């Protein structure tokens, strides 16, 4: 793996074998994350964002789920590169404690309601760093201070329900960072929060990223948050990455019709002075995962759809130049303006 | 207390004046009221016939309570509600029927609000049955088919069940149901908040079309200001049970006058990585509505607060034509 790489995911496939059929939740996803980089994974609900990240942590419930293919190369703090798909559970447990940490949308589901936040953070520190309880509690207070919780020493004895949603998310971040991970996976960490609190958490994450120098895999459906946080972006649709590029070209020169559609459908306050009073919606609905459209899964909703071309084989992910990847058979024609959307 | 009803004109279809809704909290063995949640605390505004009034604010600011109180689904603690110039605050429940037909609600969660055991046809026809409209079965069926078409669904779907539909389609069913009785006023409570962006845009556009087509008056409640800006003619910004600012939609975004609106706008991430703005990050959380700050309820998080802000409850007053704000300071650079 390249010197600057931290993670290299290749052709990852995660399927769920349900009574109704096979859900190909993640079906051939590739991306990489460099050291210190923030990669955003964006896509609508059900596109496979959470499943892809859980697979990296090897936390897919089996049954019904199974990683059926691909590799997840990860460079550990010990300098060794491993394929996480193949590691045993004991190694994974170490990696989950020391190298990769995760925060979720709803902190209450990962915080234990019957223990104080101090005890919970300290426990993680004792477990992974082998410190004494006393040292761990001191460090827990430092962590709470780091994530901007006022009166951290006092807060150690709070129970999660005594805190607001924003405070709980700060506690989760403190807990995640207490083991000094090289990768933080943040799955919709601000989706349940009000915008003013979201702004606080995003500011905090950006500050910590600079201070600690970790990489972040930031999962979100909010394009505004992507623009704010990401260095690079992967756009997912129906279990596949359809576009991957640096953040500026993703927004300024999107190549995939789905990315274009998504950007057009977002209400834009910054354009309030000039925009039309109508949003450009993507027609139709997200496809049923048990019954994905043949060929390009986006084709029933795509304004550039060409029968006989788009509904045949699954388009391959192509490099459109400078590492800007796109999974659309017509991207070049569309860029040249040779085809006009219906 | 002086009565300030922004834009009080006879053209208001709906009007609330000094509306208050306090939810009592009971405690102790005697179940006495030990405190009150001041969910809505002296709110006045009017909704003009044919307009969309947006109601925005963070969660807990009292938006849902305002909407449901107007519909008399919740009884107000104080203040008046009028509809078509008639005070409906104290009309007994059993006489509310004719108003109920004229005022309908669309909910956020289209799944929770649709009975999973009823067919789509029955769900949409139910209000017709309740209000005894379109008497014959044939007339009802025709009306249901017409409604499905109106909201962009296939009339052949009448015999299907809610679970067979996606979130966006279910929201369309909820809209068809609300429109069945030909209401004049709709409270849309976060109707697109649970939907993906591409679908959210479809539903916003649909509501806009229906408003034009049917001449509806809508109170559009949402926490996402960007969505509200698209659909609303005017917008009221709420914080801790009070209206902080009320203005024509574009005015509010282009020239906010209240410190809270300014901060709220600046907190919204812009979907453009080349735009880097200075951001006002509000510190701390929203205070509890049980014990809101004295004076201006926003003062504990306001970067322009002065000592006087703790003493005076700011009135919502007109600062330029049609533009109202509730802030005692009119000397803040950029906001005056
Ligand atoms: N335990 C499970 N059993 C069956 N299907 C699942 C399970 N977990 C996730 N899925 C399916 O995998 C797909 C991707 O889900 P997810 O990764 O959660 O999407 P996202 O995070 O992008 O919203 C969805 O179709 C979802 O229904
Ligand atoms: N039935 C109730 N009993 C007690 N408190 C309530 C009740 N309904 C709402 N509240 C409280 O009133 C405040 C305003 O709530 P709500 O109107 O739902 O706000 P919003 O819709 O703006 O999120 C919140 O603090 C909420 O917890
Ligand atoms: S492959 Fe065809 S259907 Fe798919 S995005 Fe490209 S043009 Fe649209
Ligand atoms: Mg998810
Ligand atoms: Mg609400």
TrEMBL record, chain A:
Transmembrane segments: none annotated. It is found in: Cell membrane. The keyword Transit peptide does not apply. Its main location: membrane. GO terms for biological process: peptide transport. It is a peripheral membrane protein. It comes from the Bacteria. GO terms for molecular function: ATP binding; ATP hydrolysis activity. Residues 4-263 form the ABC transporter domain. The keyword ATP-binding applies. Belongs to the ABC transporter superfamily. InterPro entries: AAA+_ATPase, ABC_Ni/Peptide_Import, ABC_transporter-like_ATP-bd, ABC_transporter-like_CS, Oligopep_ABC_C, P-loop_NTPase. PANTHER family: DIPEPTIDE TRANSPORT ATP-BINDING PROTEIN DPPD (PTHR43297:SF2), OLIGOPEPTIDE TRANSPORT ATP-BINDING PROTEIN APPD (PTHR43297). Keywords: ATP-binding, Cell membrane, Membrane, Nucleotide-binding, Transport. GO terms for cellular component: plasma membrane. This is ABC transporter ATP-binding protein.
TrEMBL record, chain B:
CDD domains: ABC_NikE_OppD_transporters. Keywords: ATP-binding, Nucleotide-binding, Transport. This is ABC transporter ATP-binding protein. Belongs to the ABC transporter superfamily. SUPFAM superfamilies: P-loop containing nucleoside triphosphate hydrolases. One of its GO terms (biological process) is peptide transport. The keyword Nucleotide-binding applies. The lineage of its organism: Bacteria, Thermotogati, Deinococcota, Deinococci, Thermales. SMART domains: AAA. GO terms for molecular function: ATP binding; ATP hydrolysis activity. Residues 25-265 form the ABC transporter domain. It comes from Meiothermus hypogaeus NBRC 106114.
